[in-house]
Amino acid sequence: MTSESIINLVLIEDEKQIRRFLSAALTNEGIIVHEAETGKQGLIECATRKPDIVIVDLGLPDISGIEVIQEVRSWSEVPIIVLSARTQEQEKVGALDAGADDYLTKPFGTAELIARIKAHLRRRQPSTGSNDHLFHFGDVNVDFSLRTVSKNGEAVHLSPIEYRLLSVLARNAGKVLTHRQLLNDVWGPNHSESNHYLRIYMANLRQKLEHSPAQPKHFLTETGVGYRLVVGDVLAS
């Protein structure tokens, strides 16, 4: 983390050993950690501390992690990362649809968690330059003002839907987007269950923009959940 700014983080985790371990690791990165062992205590911490990022476990003793996410989302856009031992895909989808930005399944490495935190904090930083319309990842450059895409300096033609899908992913770079979120944003609410559309157009984007479409480094699948556009050091699940 940079020394110019102090990062405040609320950690909502009922397992004491995990909470203390994560708190120590994050503090070592220069992050100020405010701990909570219940959902209700976590909501109080979020309301009073005004954190830069929130980490919440789904299985809390009083209210569910999803309820915490929904409540925080009703008044804040703070990045929320979910931690849980639960591996059911539907719970991941539920947490993300409730407003979480990311999801890590226990056990996970602290390096991965810290990389995710840094990535989400970068997404939240206000842009100060005049190049807000430019977006870059790998060998790809996108100019949203001109609606142009190039790879290795060569123009790439995208269909209107491919371009719209890329735009949604780029606006949320590093964030896991569920199938439903992507379908709503790209095709509209009447297609929220049409996952096959998404698979086809994601394959098209990989074919046109990835160096190795069969082993993508940027357009990543979150199995059973959705997709993530990886830029820089964002780590995949």
Automatic annotation (TrEMBL):
Residues 132-231 form the OmpR/PhoB-type domain. The keyword Cytoplasm applies. Residues 132-231 bind DNA. Residues 8-121 form the Response regulatory domain. It is found in: Cytoplasm. The modification 4-aspartylphosphate is found at residue 57. One of its GO terms (cellular component) is cytosol. One of its GO terms (biological process) is positive regulation of DNA-templated transcription. Coiled coil: none annotated. Keywords: Cytoplasm, DNA-binding, Phosphoprotein, Transcription, Transcription regulation, Two-component regulatory system. The keyword Phosphoprotein applies. GO terms for molecular function: cis-regulatory region sequence-specific DNA binding; identical protein binding; phosphorelay response regulator activity. Pfam families: Response_reg, Trans_reg_C. PANTHER family: KDP OPERON TRANSCRIPTIONAL REGULATORY PROTEIN KDPE, REGULATOR OF RPOS. This is Two-component system response regulator KdpE. It comes from Sapientia aquatica.
